[in-house]
Amino acid sequence: MSAPHARHGIVSVLAGVLLAGTALAAPAVAADHQAGTGPASFTAQTDQAPAAVVFRGRVIAHPALNVRKTPNTKYKPIRSIPYGTVVDIKCKSNGEVVDGNPRWYLLKNGGWVAARWIENINGTPPWC
Fold it and tell me: What are the domain boundaries of the chain?
């Protein structure tokens, strides 16, 4: 075998040894590693519950927005919220169409409000 071909053969053998050594060492490293440790640990990232997002909106109805038991205007309001008040929203649903908008928001502290009269502050809430 000439020198250039011999060098190619040696490089191939060395690469194979390195790859085989890496494959054999990987289980030993994994066995020694404790789950949930280290910055790249998948367990550490999924053990904790994600921070709850509180969706907020500002009342834009003058002089106030009526809060209702159901997402429609057929029943009397259970309370009202003054213009400019920031409210916490739990989720959204379809209901009676109010000024062209069928969406209603369920408030965190109870009751439904027509989404037409809420200006979203930090995104739209999920569906109920």
Answer: 3-47, 55-120
22 near 80, Cβ under 8 Å? no
pLDDT tens per residue, range 45-83 = 444 545 678 999 999 999 999 999 999 999 899 999 999
d(CA 92, CA 77) in angstroms, rounded, equals 18
Q: Which amino acid does the sequence have at 30? A: A
**Coil, helix or strand for 50?**
coil
Task: Specify the pTM.
Answer: 0.61
* Strands, E assignment, 1-85: 55-59, 64-67, 79-82
Is residue 102 a contact partner of residue 35, using CB atoms and an 8 Å limit?
no
Pairing of strands 101-107, 86-98: antiparallel
Q: In this structure, which topology does domain 55-120 adopt according to CATH?
A: SH3 type barrels. (2.30.30)
